[in-house]
Specification:
One of its GO terms (molecular function) is damaged DNA binding. InterPro entries: DNA/RNA_pol_sf, DNA_pol_Y-fam_lit_finger_sf, DNA_pol_Y-fam_little_finger, DNA_polymerase-Y, DNApol_IV, Rev_trsase/Diguanyl_cyclase, UmuC. Keywords: DNA damage, DNA repair, DNA replication, DNA-directed DNA polymerase, Magnesium, Metal-binding, Nucleotidyltransferase, Transferase. By secondary structure, this protein is α+β, with helices and mostly antiparallel strands. It has four domains: 5-42, no CATH class; 58-78 and 262-316, DNA polymerase, domain 1, CATH 1.10.150.810; 90-254, Reverse transcriptase/Diguanylate cyclase domain (Alpha-Beta Plaits), CATH 3.30.70.270; 344-490, DNA polymerase, Y-family, little finger domain (Dna Ligase, domain 1), CATH 3.30.1490.100. It has 19 helices and 15 strands. The chain has helices at 12-26, 30-54, 58-80, 100-108, 133-136, 146-152, 163-180, 197-202, 208-223, 235-242, 257-266, 277-285, 291-296, 298-304, 307-316, 340-343, 360-381, 413-430, 480-490; strands spanning 92-97, 117-119, 130-131, 157-159, 185-188, 191-195, 227-232, 250-252, 347-357, 383-394, 399-410, 437-445, 448-449, 455-456, 459-460. The strands form four sheets. The chain has a five-stranded mixed β-sheet. Strands 9, 10, 11, 12 and 13 form a five-stranded antiparallel β-sheet that branches. It is globular, with a radius of gyration of 26 Å. It binds a DNA duplex (9 and 13 nucleotides) through helix 2, helix 6, helix 12, helix 15 and strand 9.
Length: 494
DNA sequence: GCGGATCAC
DNA sequence: CATGGTGATCCGC
């Protein structure tokens, strides 16, 4: 008799049961096999790092210690200068709605509050976007395929996504945020980062924790949603703290240097934003489990890790967002915080998963669809593309990409397709049947605004791609069947 | 510049 | 039987 999942909390026995169900369901699937291959590549990477580590000398370490000492001094100087007009540290808050999509449905239809429920993933190949907290006790998580979730919990209710509803709810929540910081930033519908310093200056009777309690209470009163929050000296710490007492809780991280170091020192490395499953595994292989381990082993890590990662680790182990006190950017680099270079998207993409197929005609039709979608997005964003990347995924889940830089003025569906179709043909030719494919997409990057030099809306200079480029977005004269024949003639090894 | 990988949401 | 889509960044050629 299996353990009753209704009693599942965070207990070890229940967790083991959940893991066993997931393992039994996943075992043998193509997805699982691809995961194993990725795991093997990570193991190779760790082995190479260990071989490198074995060659590290005392003088390498001594040199690293010097470099680290200088970097640490620079970081501390920069952090101490990041204070408000009165010389006090800023009070940053990160606020995060709990199980946002699922909770919005619960507010509208309270019958979902007491039963396991998840949102998204109603299609055949669906994965869940959010699960309510009842469902989470069964081990159900976001990004879990629906069919595995049903093995964990057969009575699970799965609702369709309703973004219109989520946008309405998010807009209400944002009116609350704006009362506490009119300049708050949101990276997604369900979270926001606020600078509470001005608000607190106007309300000296409130502690930061009291103000945030009141903000979360206002969110609940005005939307029925619960939120969790973190309060700290910078946004990174606030974000980490917002996760600590979820759901419907908050945490204040000490603002003094030693308090910050104690907080990050006790933190498992996986909690730092930017350290995912793979980096966690790599660090684990070197006995680096916590922020304190990072700090203690910094000289050694410095000698074996790549520049971006080691600098990131140095910063976060001091409780400081990465990139702090870096040397000034080279002249000409467009790194204007708050300016439009910082907010401009660097790429736009469209991709789609479908029932695995080896049919070139189908893949061509799908690629046309993705190009049409991407063309619409480019036009709406008022940009042209300099680089196009074709992406395709095998039935085995292995992913391939091919990219090519263009003259910088590509946007219509037809232009996009003429650039990426050869990439599709080449990849398919390299992988002869019976290779089957399950996803295909196209990404535009190196975006150039319509009003950039030499560029005005409707008049594009220097466009010469294929034979038909009158600026018409609808030019799908080339028939799939004809392409298919052409490919067949060209296909095949010598 | 290109292709593979990693990460967040 | 069966595992998403979008955007960003980094690393090693």
């Amino acid at each position: 008799m299996l353990i009753n999942p209704l009693k599942a909390g965070t207990g070890g026995a229940d967790r083991a049961h959940i893991e066993a169900v997931i393992y039994e369901a996943s075992k043998g699937t193509r997805f699982f096999e691809e995961q194993k291959r990725r795991h093997a590549r990570t193991a190779d990477r760790i082995a190479r790092l260990k071989a490198h580590a074995a060659r590290v000398t005392r003088s390498d370490l001594a040199e690293a210690e010097q470099t680290i000492a200088h970097r640490r001094a620079a970081i501390e100087a920069a952090v101490l200068s990041d204070v408000d007009a009165d010389g006090r540290p800023r009070v940053m808050v990160h606020c995060d709605l709990d199980a946002f999509y699922a909770s919005v449905h619960e507010v509208d239809e309270p019958q979902w509050r007491t039963v396991p429920m998840a949102v998204g993933g109603t299609g055949g190949d669906g994965v869940l976007t959010t699960a309510n907290y009842v469902a989470r006790r069964f081990g159900i998580r976001s990004a879990m395929p629906t069919w595995i979730a049903r093995k964990l919990c057969p009575q699970l209710a799965v609702l369709d996504l309703d973004f219109a509803k989520y946008r309405v709810a998010a807009a209400k929540v944002r009116t609350v945020f704006s009362r506490y910081d009119p300049r708050f930033r949101s990276a997604s519908l369900d979270e926001a980062s606020l600078d509470l310093t001005p608000y607190l200056a106007e309300h000296p009777e409130l502690t930061p924790a009291q103000a945030v309690e009141a903000m979360r209470a206002a969110i609940h009163a005005e939307t029925g949603l619960t939120a969790s929050a973190g309060i700290a000296a910078n946004t990174m710490l606030a974000k980490i703290a917002s996760d600590a007492n979820k759901p419907n809780g908050q945490l204040l991280v000490p603002f003094d240097r030693l308090g910050i170091l104690a907080f990050v020192g006790a933190l498992p490395v996986r909690k730092f934003p930017g350290i995912g499953a793979v980096t966690d595994h790599v660090l684990d292989a070197f006995g680096v489990l916590t922020g304190a381990d990072i700090a203690a082993q910094m000289p050694f890590l410095w000698t074996i890790l790549t520049p971006a990662l080691r600098d990131y680790l140095l910063c976060v182990s001091m409780g400081v967002p990465s990139g702090a006190a870096l040397p000034p950017a080279p002249p000409g680099a467009s790194s204007t915080p708050g300016g439009d270079a910082a907010t401009r998207r660097s790429g736009i993409s469209s991709e789609r998963t479908f029932k695995s197929t080896a049919s070139l005609a189908f893949l061509q039709a799908m690629l046309r669809d993705q190009c049409a979608t991407l063309a619409d997005d480019l036009r709406r964003s008022r940009v042209f593309a300099r680089t196009l990347t074709f992406k395709i995924k095998k039935e085995s889940f292995a992913v391939l990409t091919r990219s090519r830089s263009t003259n910088g003025y590509v946007r219509t569906a037809g232009e996009l397709y003429r650039h990426v179709e050869p990439m599709l043909l080449a990849v398919v030719r390299e992988h002869r049947p019976p290779t089957q494919w399950r996803l295909l997409g196209v990404r535009a990057s190196g975006l150039v605004g319509e009003n950039a030099d030499g560029m005005t809306a409707g008049v594009r200079v220097g466009v010469r791609v294929g034979g038909n480029d009158g600026g018409n977005d609808r030019d799908d004269a080339t028939r799939d069947g004809r392409r298919s024949d052409a490919v067949r003639r060209r296909g095949g090894h010598p």
